Amino acid sequence: MSTDFPDLPPLKDVIREHGLLAKKSLGQNFLMNPSVTDYIAGSAGDLTKGTVVEVGPGPGGLTRSLLRAGANNLVALEKDERCVNALHQLSLAFPNRLTVLEQDALTFDYSSLGDSPVIIVANLPYNVATTLLIGWLKLIADKALPIQSMTLMFQREVGQRITASPGSKSYGRLSVLCQWLCDTYSVCELPPSAFTPPPKVHSTVVGFKPLAEPRFNTTLKSLETVTAAAFGQRRKMLRQSLKKLDVELETLLAEAQIAGTRRPEELSIQEFGQLASTYESLAV
User: Fold this and answer.
1) In total, how many domains does the chain have?
2) Which of 94, 118, 143, 262 lies 20 to 30 Å from 4 when distance is taken between CA atoms?
3) Domain boundary among 160, 181, 210
């Protein structure tokens, strides 16, 4: 952890000075407790190498912790002009380590980050968290961005779906998509009181370690299509829920060696891979 850290005004003073009342439309819930943000930053691994990306830094609580943890090239993406202005003092204090960009993370050109390993650490706005995650998974699948790890905050139920195992109530489409490409694990859970203002839900920080290669050979598009159909009617047998796919169902199930009487939550990650790759070959 870096010991060369300048004196900075308390976050509550930064919020007051810049009128940073959290906007519900932007999904803003600020993390103010430095012990919490330090823990999250510390769980993200070695931040001294590569590019660390933070989405929605707000007044900069987690940003400060990432810098304290040794981030040497931290890029903060913030679409709220008020927060960009509030982070200006932090940028001045770390001119060679922190870059604040007034950008929407949903439309940001991640290729502009260069070829160095990318570490994403963020208290994600819950209203766009899953959309952002799917976008990053696509970059991993396409090998379009060298993402080394991701440490991301989600609503607790979403975090549970990401890390769920087959057979559990939380196991679903997001479990398969994430675990196809990454090892996933829960870092910590946070109550509403950890945030300002407190959200109505509990939160979970989830860690992602992208695999050197996906667990099976298919495309994200095919896997999304198959899992959307299967879990769209998760209580039904596959021979019913997969009817909406534009292929001959009996052929799909036979070639994938999956019994149509099974339900989607019973299938392993690998078996969904068999379905997706078979679907891909039949849909050509």
Assistant:
1) 2
2) 118
3) 210
Residues 197 and 274 in one domain: no
Q: Please report the pLDDT score of residue 10 as a whole number.
A: 79
Give the domain extent around 252: 220-282
- pLDDT tens string 69-122: 999 999 999 998 888 988 988 998 888 999 999 999 999 999 999 889 999 999
Residue 145 lies in a domain: yes
How many other CB atoms sit within 10 Å of the CB of residue 253? 19
